[in-house]
Specification:
Elements (H helix, E strand, L loop, with lengths): L1 E10 L5 H17 L3 E8 L4 E8 L2 H8 L2 H6 L3 H4 E11 L7 H11 L1 E2 L7 H4 L12 E4 L12
Antiparallel strand pairs: 1-3, 1-4, 2-3, 2-6, 4-5
């Protein structure tokens, strides 16, 4: 069994983008070293929309990650930086990551809007645009424990 977490955030202004990306990279490093992390993907779309998809051993592992380190420090900033934010979680039999279209389907059907101080009209209407494939995609892999050799 795996716990899947998907987020979608839209940065509301270019002036927040450098700090958002910096905090994202810090959170990515934290994610890859987190206990219980099984794998993930990132997607940056046009119009400053960012998707994350991560697989965890269980919900407790994801919650421990979310409530600590760089990620915990970044979360309050999203109230100001973003005008759209949503999240969805579910359990599935395998740790295999779903497609972006499946993640979108889950987000639309089961997702929850996160609080933002300056919501867009799409956020207010709970409209979540489908993810668009991009050259700006990346995979996240768990860091190997010390002594197991270099990561591939």
């Amino acid at each position: 069994m795996a716990f899947i977490s998907v987020t979608r955030l839209r940065v509301r202004s270019l002036r927040y983008l450098p700090l958002f990306i910096w905090r994202t990279m810090q959170s990515v490093r934290q994610t890859e070293r987190a206990s219980g992390f099984l794998g993930g993907r990132l997607l940056r779309e046009a119009r400053n929309a960012f998707w994350t998809m991560t697989a965890w051993e269980d919900e407790a592992a994801m919650n421990a990650f979310r409530g600590s380190g760089a990620h915990r420090g970044a979360m309050p900033k999203l109230l100001i930086w973003c005008d759209e934010a949503s999240v969805v979680h579910w359990n599935q039999e395998t740790p295999e990551l779903p497609t972006w279209l499946e993640a979108h389907r889950q987000m639309v059907n089961e997702g929850k809007r996160s609080k933002v101080n300056y919501p867009s009209s799409a956020h207010v209407a709970n409209h979540i645009a489908a993810p668009q494939r991009s050259r700006l995609e990346g995979n996240l892999k768990p860091a190997q424990p010390h002594g197991d050799g270099p990561r591939p």
